[in-house]
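Morning, I've got a small favour to ask if you have a moment. I'm working through a protein record and want to make sense of it properly. The fold is given in discrete form, as structure tokens running alongside the sequence. Can you walk me through what the tokens say about the fold? Thanks so much in advance, here it is:
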Amino acid sequence: MPAAAHAVYDRLTRFEELPELLEDVQEVRRAGAGRLQWTARRGGRVVRWETDVVEAVIGQRLVWVPAPGTPGESVAVTIEELGDASCRVTLSVTGLPGEDREEARGRLERDLERLRDLFSRIPGDAAPPAPPPPPLPTAPDADVDVALGAVPEDAPGPPAQRG
């Protein structure tokens, strides 16, 4: 991602603006401390659900889960600072009701590309765009994992894990 981790985190925590980035989301509203109300269009129909933000580590991680008694997906956003005003963003999503994994993966990859494009146009937060990483294997506890970011060639670990 051609932006510093704190800039990406700040943008993602402006929940009411997420419909600009997420292709199926029509509206996100705050409904109290840590509670979000979502409206999306999926499979040709309007879907509504509530989530609770259960983890927020500034510039690093953001997690929301379905509110008690509410169907919906759990999302974990992990942001890893890479230096040179760039970072890696990984989305892990579980509980995709009635949605095909590959369809969801494609939607989430497009969402991350929109975020990347946004930061590519913002002076100060932007760095030269990096090539997209190779696909990552799905984490055992996630329905879909999607990552986008630049990883230096000398980063630790095997290339498949560095994505």
About this structure: The first strand starts at residue 25 and ends at 30.
